Amino acid sequence: MRKRKLNKLGKIVISLLVILLLGVIGLTTYHFVFKNNKDVKEKPQVEVVEEPKEEEEEPVVPEEKRMSLVMVGDALIHGAIYMDARKANGTYDFSKMFTYIAPIIKDYDLKYYNQESIIGGGTPQHYPRLNSPDAIGKNLVSIGFNLVSLANNHAFDQNEAGLKYSTAFWKKQTGVKTAGSYASLAERNAIPVYEQNGIKYAFLAYTMCTNGLSAPKGKEYYVNVYDKELVKNDIVKARNNGAEVVMVSMHWGNEYTHVPTDIQKTTAKYLSSLGVDLIIGSHPHVIQPIEYIGNTLVIYSLGNFISAQRVLGLEKIIGLLVGTDIVVKDNKVSFEKTNFELLYTYYTASNVNFKVIPFNKLNNNILNNYQTINTKYRKIVDPKGQFNGN
What pLDDT was estimated at residue 13? Predict the structure, then answer.
């Protein structure tokens, strides 16, 4: 009996030891398996978010605006010229004189010339008190000229009546902008600003000489006679009116000299200091140099576009045609593709068959030794070779 009890007690002890051992194993398994799994599950998950890449901004390219301009000099209509243009019915037609010019200028936006001999109504007159037929203005407009300077030393040749006729005539010419002569003080002081290809520009004109003639008192507005303060005020007004480009036609200097006078140079520097972008010179009746003063392009004299001054020397019938692109970019004005061509006024010994011919269309039958003459006169205009169209 005692032995059975001991066997029973041993079994109980063994059972308890087995249970205890299983408990230890269970706790260890829980710790290393379940506890560790819990740690893994409770470990916070870090979401990787890619930062958005900043788009690279394209550099801002300043807007570029441009307009092309071609310029010729004085339309000086002597008696021989208007008599050659006179038809049997008493009317006038100058168009045959410019057949070489029309195709050259047609693709330019702006086309400038100086109407040296006033279109003053009535009977045409020769030197010294010039008066030209309406047809010269109409014919030049018909081939494209649309910027005309009216301020020159012959502006008063037909007195007040001629000035009134002239301003009325030009107002009738569609698409043409004139400067330098006005019908009223209000018109003179208006300083209009025009627009071409998105560029706003002002066109001003002044003369330094009037052949001893002058406007009636109180009517000085008829012709812009150069005055430093007047010009300064006009330029300020042009800028205030929105002009990005200011062009000034100047009738100045001494006649028949290829060298600009000190007054021309001083005036050009003054105009440049006022911010004028382009100075277009006339009056000497011969060509003079082109140069830059700061950022200002200065053409001291375009010479004669057409005239009958051969008797005074070959240089009086050689003029300039200048072309350029005016560029406005980032509020700055510059000039590109500036180039020039010499022009020759041909006519016979009997003063007929007038025709303006570019030098690149000449031959020795029209002008003997024209190539040597071309080289000589191009050096007068551009001694440094700056203005070859680049």
Answer: 44
| Residue 202 per-residue DSSP state | E
Residue 256 near residue 312 (C-beta atoms within 8 A): yes
* Model pLDDT, residue 199: 98
Do 190 and 183 meet the contact criterion of CB atoms below 8 Å apart? Answer: no
Q: ∠ CA(267), CA(269), CA(273), 5° rounding?
A: 115
What's the pLDDT score for residue 45?
55
The predicted structure's pLDDT at residue 26: 47
pTM of the model: 0.85
Sequential DSSP letters for 254-298: -TT-SSPPHHHHHHHHHHHHTT--EEEEESSSSB--EEEETTEEE
DSSP 3-state of 212: coil
Structure tokens belonging to residue 162? 């001629």
Cβ-in-10-Å burial (0-12, 13-18, 19+) of 123 comes to exposed
With a CB cutoff of 8 Å and minimum separation 6, the contacts of 164 are: 183
Q: Name, in order, each residue with C-beta under 8 angstroms of 85's C-beta and a sequence gap of 6 or more.
A: 92, 93, 94, 97, 133, 135, 136, 354
Set out the domains of the chain in order of their start, with CATH numbers. 64-381 (3.60.21.10)
Q: Residue 195's pLDDT is what?
A: 98
Residue 309: its pLDDT value, please? 96
Q: Which residues of the chain have pLDDT under 70?
A: 1-56, 60-61, 389-390
Q: Give SS3 for 3.
A: helix
Confidence (pLDDT) at 50: 59
User: In the chain, where does DSSP find H-type helix?
Assistant: 2-29, 36-42, 79-85, 101-105, 134-142, 159-171, 185-190, 228-240, 262-273, 370-381
Does residue 296 contact residue 272 with C-beta atoms inside 8 Å?
A: yes
